[in-house]
Amino acid sequence: MTDKPIKGGVATWACLPGFPPAVIFPFTPGERFGVRSLYEFQMLMYRPLYWLGRDGAPEIDWDLSVGEEPVWDETGRTCTVRIKPWKWSNGETVCADNVIFWMNMLKVKGPRFGAYSEGYFPDNLVSFEKVADDKVSFTFDKAYSTNWVLLNQLTMITPMPKAWDRTADGPADATHDIDQAEAVYEFLMAENGDVVEEDNSHRTRWADSPVWSVVNGPWRLKSYTEDGVVTFVPNEHYSGPNPAHLDELRQVSTTSDEQQYELLQSGDVQVGFLPPGMGVQPDGDPTKGGPNPLGDGFQLEPQILFNINFMAVNFSNPTVAGHLIRQPYVRQALQSCFDQEYGAREVYQGYGWSQTGSIPVLPKSDLVSPKIAERGGFWPFDLEKARELLADNGWDVSASPAVCVRPGTGPGEAGEGIPAGTELSFSLRYWEGRPSLARLMAQFRDDAAKAGIEIRLEEVMGSVLVAEDGPGEKRMWQLSCWGGGWVYNYPTGENLFQSGAACNFSNWRDAKADELIAKTVTTDSLEALYEYQEYIAEQAPVIFMPTFPRRLFEVAGNLRGFSPINPYGLINPENWYYIDDTADGAS
């Protein structure tokens, strides 16, 4: 039997619980900067300058990129990018001005963009300019790794149409006058609506907006309902490759893994995911699907991303909890209480693996420090080591929670701002509606208690958690876990661990880390990458957690074009199509 494609049809995608698309404006702030709003929503409509992931490999897809490959001059400091003449849905041509418009906004509002890191793009540019209607040049302050520039810098750019260059008073010109960028930004953020508010009423206006309806991707937004159903239809003016086969793509909100699984069983969704606790990988290879509880009617596809998982710890908390977190030995003890192997083996049923530091373990590469790989991380699960760290630094661990008995800042004392009698106790907020995560957090709580650390658990809706517990000064949260972490382009760390980075979720500032990160972006030397990641692993500015496929995708058996899985988390539903599985033919 051969596959006989069917033109048209509707495919419904079940969103992860608690994470509806929250921002349509591609200039997404750090508190909403994640796969769900960017890669699974915005980029269907607004194509970035460079498309990450090609045929399942972690590289640039030049065919799907608006920009052609950068051309570097002999100094290694200036690159020129030609813009392909794709069309916006209002008839405008994608051009150099659209890139300059974005760059002017980034120059003015960089700290409000989730991928911004102080001192890097665009701060490390001497100039950027339009050199032809279809060409833009970027001159850097020194020579950098060209691989890093492409993957971590130029991928930040999303060309914006002239139709967006306006304020509430009418057309503006932030494209040519950078002083107007602030007002245009404020207008576009107002058109987006409150990025923290969870009510969908402001999102229902997006489809009919004269701003957001101007798209250059293969899809446009048809509707966003009060109850969170998102419907896309093909952009009839799309001029890039691979126009959509389907008539509609729907994305539905879910409240729990169980509810989503019921939708799969009933046939109400064609793309969903197997709840992590239900999937079993008997061979321990998380990259391959094991037995499928849904049977032959669905294809099981593990979504392996180039990512790490971690729990953020809040260095900016102004209470005694913040003083505790700022002590390296406390963070090291917390890391030593996390049994990642238990999580990978028992909670994630063989679909998980231990994350030993700031560089992804999978997909396998030579980027992971051999020193870290050999020892299983600087702080593998070891409750006795955790107790030793605490006892050596002024804590009585004979009871739980442990009590500070040697206050002060000298050797063997608890540290600044920690009075005698302080109990070692933290609140931990985590993403609700995920039984596997709840089980992992409960195990962490129980193990930590054996070492003298009290963990007080609280479930919070995922999108609320990310919005409220994101980077920022003097926020009151202590430990926060949204069940994920960070998907890298190239794993140099300036987004996560650079002082002042928009997505430095722990609000950590460390001069040595900044220095080591700076080395990784100016050379392709693996030794620089190893030195950086070893320091991060030793300092534990986050608590590394077992990593697992972002989802065990369940895809309807008659839906094709879904794989290969993009290692960065982007999706291409324009490639999806149904087959006539009743038709017979020679194979």
TrEMBL record:
<keyword id="KW-0813">Transport</keyword>
<dbReference type="GO" id="GO:1904680">
    <property type="term" value="F:peptide transmembrane transporter activity"/>
</dbReference>
<dbReference type="Pfam" id="PF00496">
    <property type="entry name" value="SBP_bac_5"/>
</dbReference>
<feature type="domain" description="Solute-binding protein family 5">
    <location>
        <begin position="69"/>
        <end position="503"/>
    </location>
</feature>
<dbReference type="GO" id="GO:0030313">
    <property type="term" value="C:cell envelope"/>
</dbReference>
<dbReference type="GO" id="GO:0015833">
    <property type="term" value="P:peptide transport"/>
</dbReference>
<dbReference type="InterPro" id="IPR000914">
    <property type="entry name" value="SBP_5_dom"/>
</dbReference>
<keyword id="KW-0732">Signal</keyword>
<protein>
    <submittedName>
        <fullName>ABC transporter substrate-binding protein</fullName>
    </submittedName>
</protein>
<dbReference type="InterPro" id="IPR039424">
    <property type="entry name" value="SBP_5"/>
</dbReference>
<comment type="similarity">
    <text>Belongs to the bacterial solute-binding protein 5 family.</text>
</comment>
